[in-house]
């Protein structure tokens, strides 16, 4: 099975449409959305609508902290993030808000675990920013491979014989074998707000038959996405981050 993995869309419809077009051209059997459909960007309702339609066709979607903040606590977010959540909250329908609220926080399916932050205390949305954090995630998932978002950068951690985790920074487009005798934790990057100084949207494709993983980047009209943010009256800093990939 070929599985497309998308995370941290953050209301960026331009980026999502570009990724979906690229994925359709490559061909996959399932879509998995790793949380944070909403916030920051100007088009959260349409992003949620697309995700809902995909779930009806068999996709998996897990909840991110921005999704949870729509009908939950948002005071811990910074000012920019709170503005994005408030804008999304205003535009979402009751049905869309219910969908976000009811998304599971973690899903396990065969050899894969899907979560926004980490399988270790997923309700707290920890950042996987170290090998130790990746090890805790892999141990909690207790499956060969775990897919995460939240960090907005593409990274791959893998287990070693001495039970440590090593970091690999992937090259887009290059298949990486991910044999099941190791533990793997894959951060698939952000569709709508990458933070590695490259504005191109991110996604990944996992092929369970090989098994292998390919990270992808998709150039898109990020300036048009930034302009939508400005037109919506959202903070200029959000538009800047979309334009610069920071």
What's the structural blueprint in terms of helices and strands?
Elements: E1 2-6, H1 13-26, E2 30-33, H2 44-56, E3 60-61, H3 65-69, H4 79-91, H5 94-102, E4 106-109, E5 112-115, H6 131-141, E6 145-148, E7 154-159, E8 165-168, E9 176-177, E10 184-188, E11 201-207, E12 212-218, H7 222-231, H8 236-244
Parallel strand pairs: 1-2, 2-3, 5-6, 6-10
Antiparallel strand pairs: 1-11, 4-5, 7-8, 7-10, 9-12, 11-12
Describe the protein:
The strands form 2 sheets. The protein has a 6-stranded mixed sheet with strand order 3-2-1-11-12-9. The chain is globular. The mean pLDDT is 97. It has 8 helices and 12 strands. It is 34% helix and 22% strand. With 246 residues, the chain is an alpha/beta fold. The longest helix has 14 residues, at 13-26. Strand 4 (106-109) and strand 5 (112-115) form a beta hairpin. It has helices spanning 13-26, 44-56, 65-69, 79-91, 94-102, 131-141, 222-231, 236-244; strands spanning 2-6, 30-33, 60-61, 106-109, 112-115, 145-148, 154-159, 165-168, 176-177, 184-188, 201-207, 212-218.
Considering the chains and any ligands shown, give keywords for the structure.
246 residues; alpha/beta; six-stranded mixed beta sheet; 8 helices; globular
